[in-house]
Amino acid sequence: MSVCHNVMNISCVGSNWSSDVRASLYSLMVLIILTTLVGNLMVVISISHFKQLHTPTNCLLRSMATVDFLLGCLVMPYSMVRSVEHYWYFGEIFCKIHTSTDIMLSSASIFHLSFISIDRYYAVCDPLRYKARMSLLVIFVMIFISWSVPAVFAFGMIFLELNFKGAEEIYYKHIHCRGGCTVFFSKITGVLVFMISFYIPGSVMLCVYCRIYFIAKEQAKSIKGTNPKLQTGLEVKNGILQSKERKAATTLGLLLGVFLICWCPFFVSTVMDPFLNYLVPLTLNEALIWFGYLNSTLNPMVYAFFYPWFRKALKTILIGKIFRKDSSRCKIFLDSNP
Fold first, then answer.
1. CA–CA distance from 304 to each of 43, 73, 216, 300, 308 (Å)?
2. Closest among 33, 11, 30, 32 to 22, alpha carbons compared
3. pLDDT tens digits for 125-180?
4. Of 1, 83, 105, 246, which one has the fewest beta carbons inside 10 Å?
5. Residue 12 phi, psi dihedral angles, 5° rounding
6. Superfamily of domain 19-329
7. Residue in 338, 281, 333, 283 with CA at minimum distance from that of residue 312
8. Hey, which residues does 11 pair with through a beta bridge?
């Protein structure tokens, strides 16, 4: 059924910020974009180039870094112009493509974080059966789900205009304008996006982190309660395992914290806004979106801080050793598991 709306030709009101404010915003956003691109590109190059890093876990890390790189390359630059100018210069069809890609890549990044937490859970809590449980095939299935489910969900919802379902009149009368590209959700789709893209993967990450944390504490208590004559031997035997447990718990905790800090405000706003009659200001909504983008910017920094193999690979790339013959066989770490 075709519906005609009298307000569809009304132009959106552009930004009234001064040139200094716009220049500052553009500078900040360009810095975020470049940091996102460089950081995630380094992760992709490191894992792809060095053969010692060709592990199932790192395939998952590389896939997530690819998602974050594409977010910085394909989505953030256009979002930057929209956020600063409060106007969309790139046409209605490209608006749908941009919005779909934005939702897809943001959700895919979150899905990867969730699957990485599951991988680390089995590595720490069931190390003897880890290789059997987390085979290359299982990792590829995780990667496929992380890409395909957000893609079908995002493009299907936006191009079929399911995000307007139940709120068409509100959107066309009060939100829609020529030159606008607003990410709009009805009550139903707002809750659906919140559940699929944030609550479910976030809950998985939280549960896994808590489980690893308590297992690490139980291990430490069991070592302390051991017979003093046997304690030294057990400490030596379990030292590496405990170190990995602590590192996994700390890394996952930081990833979870960064994820929650960056994305929680946006998704809470998204799910609440339809129930508040869309009172969230455009400027605030754009700020929350960029706060979410920061998750993709900060992920490589977490790797650089906690993973020695990434720091060594990064150093090798930056000083040009990567161009030497057989550099792909360079020893990045001594332990068999990075």
1. 9, 21, 23, 6, 7
2. 30
3. 888 888 888 899 999 999 999 999 999 999 999 999 898 888 877 877 767 777 78
4. 1
5. -70, 150
6. Rhodopsin 7-helix transmembrane proteins (1.20.1070.10)
7. 333
8. 178
